[in-house]
Amino acid sequence: MRKTWILASAALALVACEQDDGMTSDLPDGKRLYTENCAACHGAKGQGDGELAQHLFKPPADLTALSESNGGEFPRNYVISTMDGFARGEHVGGAMPEFGEKLAGRTVIMQTGDGIGTPTPAPLVALADYLESIQAK
Question: How many Å apart are CA 12 and CA 127, to the nearest integer?
């Protein structure tokens, strides 16, 4: 009985999500979300030099160096977890607000790299896509 309930719950969760077919055209505008939610601290280009940066007790991260700091691979799961507040560590130090509720919305299935699709709010995916696009080459 318990196994049936778990399977039914998982099926309902997947039905409630819109499948992401790998195309981002149906996602919110990640650059707009960045400008509205991140640029004040991280700067217009994501280099940690926003107008509020000088007033923070811990400088904002240079978001263009995330891949470089991760062996050349964009750390999508880390970025999503940091933005939504799910997995925060001392690296954030309490200066960065949690955006999970603010960026909630319809969900899409995001591939996490381990073969498992995870229902994730579309605005968070769009913002992560934008951050990936501004990585230093």
Answer: 26
